[in-house]
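Support request, please re-run this one:
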Amino acid sequence: MTTDDELSLPDLQDAVLSSDTLAALLNDIEHCTELLELRVKTRAHGHSNAGEPCLKDIPVHLLAGHAVQLRYRHFGQQWLDTLLPTPRGTRLVRIKC
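Re-run finished. Output below.
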């Protein structure tokens, strides 16, 4: 048997961001968090080998069809954001770690 504690999953947030909201998010991450990890995921290779990615390059990666994962600390809490390009904008999936 399992208890409710064993079945609890982290809260998940899901939204589609406009380009302006994406820019504001990246600015907030740059100036208000401790960025722990940034990964670019390509369809062909799993992870990009284009050198060390940086926040300012994220819109270019999204336009190229790549997903981006950001792991960061904000007010003592760790978060994992996954950014996915969609025809309607950038999909943000956020999990509190």
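DSSP finds three helices and five strands in the chain. The chain has a mean pLDDT of 88.
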